[in-house]
Amino acid sequence: MRYDKKKYGIYFIFIILLMICLFGVFFYLKPSLAYNYDEPPLLASSSIYEMHHPFYTQSKWDQFIDYLEKISSVKKKDLQTLHVLEQEEEQQNVVNEKIRLLFQAFVLGSIFIIGINHLVVYFHRKKELSALFIALACFGVVTRTFFIKETLFINLFFDFKPESLLIVDLITGLVSILFYLLYINREFIRNRYRFMTNFFVSCVIIYIICMLVFPLEIILQTNYIYQLLALFILIYIVCFSIIAGIKRMPGAYLNLIGLLILFVLVWNDFFHYSEHISTNEFISVSILFYLFFMTIHLSRKSSYSFERVERLSEELGKLNLILELKVKQRTEELQVANESLQKVEESRRRLLASVSHELNTPLTFIHGHVKAMLDGIVPKDDTTYLRAVYNDTKMMTRMIADLQELSILESGQYSFHFKEVDMKTFIVQMYEELQPLFNGKDLHFIFKESIGKETNIFCSIDPIRIKQVLTNLIVNAQKFTPKGGSIYMETVIRQNENEKKEVKLTIMDTGIGIDEKNIPYLFERFFKLNEQQYCLEKGSGLGLVISKEIVEIHGGMIGVTSQKNKGSKFYFTLPIRRD
């Protein structure tokens, strides 16, 4: 990764500024280590905030001494005028005090409302621990301010002992920092660094227990532990806030902006209490601004979560709709498949019954004929029965061979010998070799060629197997074609759906055709047409199934079109390897 000096230089300057801010916050919030119960009466009557504020000097006591000196130098005739001025100044101070009190009440009320809002969010969604931590941090800030700010909780009800106020100040300050740390840990610190968070949390809890158990004198003597603990926690928080900003984690920029505002207003209070500038105290306002930015971050986070839930719900609804459509489609397909399986099962039962009958009949006849010959009923030189027995045994042999061949093809244990063949020459050769099948059948066998004379088409085929397919289709066509009819063999070149060239071989007849309801099942195993309805010769019903397996192994497809009393067209395709 390329090192960007300008980018990291800006980050370094920003880190320095935030470190200065941390020291400002640290010195602003720390209790006084020099609390003395023997202070002058004027100081002892002041608020606890003034007693332990680090920037507090004895300026009020000095102003009081200067005031006495001025009075002693004023002439008696000017005392009445001075009294009037004092009354006007006192009235103005009362007005300013009321305005300041209202402003503080507004700020604390806003922080308290933010805490209530996040607490309600947590109760509605218990997994949102960040909202709980922000709420508890808000309550800690409000409680601490109520106890250390003059004219607020103390003056509204009753005065507390300074020792109690100091303990409340320390505990609420640590509690606020603790929950702020837990919030930053939840939002920006990764798991591998959370052992540091657990360490700081344990230290804070132990220190709070010690403050509740040990006397105040011991707590004041070891107050440096409180300061160091708060300082290290704030440094830890700032470092990971900057790291989160560099990594552009969600909400990191808002967190840095809030810290920057806190930095500016803390230094305003620093110069205000050190009497370098004449402004007001804004530390509560800076905390309010920071909590407001964190509220924006959590609101955006919740909004993004809701948007994601809505988007996922919408996608889930679409997915459910698609699944319903798929289920409906699959149900329809299963219904069709079920009907097809029922048809196949029925065909299988018919075929098995037919095979059983066809095997049983010749076996019974052979058994009877042999028995008759053995008993001398049939003359031994009578060849009629012997010829019938021979034909039946041939039928049985063919049926058994077809079943065996089909089983081999379906199991994938076949042995094909592929080679590139010039289809034009091969088809002409097939036409010549198939001519003897029409001898003595009173049928016309016509060859139609649509391949150009100069075109050479090469396919990778097993010639013996393709001849077997053509033979099966022609024998099948002869069964459906009456005497005097014609059977055509046609070859064309076409492009399939994938725009690849292929050779299409078609066997057409002028026979009785096939019912459309039976066409989808012609290439199914165990399917056999009604021999009496179509006046067919006996067969195994496996020739077309075997032909389909052979064509598919060659990468082609086989099909049929037929109309009743108008003939049938059986065709199959072979992919062209080169031309």
TrEMBL record:
Residues 327-354 form a coiled coil. The chain crosses the membrane at residues 9-29, 101-122, 129-148, 164-183, 195-218, 224-246, 253-270, 282-299. InterPro entries: 7TMR_DISM_rcpt_extracell_dom1, BphY/WalK/GraS-like, HATPase_C_sf, HATPase_dom, His_kinase_dom, HisK_dim/P_dom, HisK_dim/P_sf, Sig_transdc_His_kin-like_C. SUPFAM superfamilies: ATPase domain of HSP90 chaperone/DNA topoisomerase II/histidine kinase, Homodimeric domain of signal transducing histidine kinase. GO terms for molecular function: ATP binding; phosphoprotein phosphatase activity; phosphorelay sensor kinase activity. Residues 354-578 form the Histidine kinase domain. It catalyses: ATP + protein L-histidine = ADP + protein N-phospho-L-histidine. It is found in: Cell membrane. SMART domains: HATPase_c (SM00387), HisKA (SM00388). It is a multi-pass membrane protein. GO terms for biological process: cellular response to phosphate starvation. Keywords: ATP-binding, Coiled coil, Kinase, Membrane, Nucleotide-binding, Phosphoprotein, Transferase, Transmembrane, Transmembrane helix, Two-component regulatory system. It is an enzyme of class 2 (transferase). GO terms for cellular component: plasma membrane. Its EC number is 2.7.13.3. Its main location: membrane. It comes from the Bacteria. This is histidine kinase.
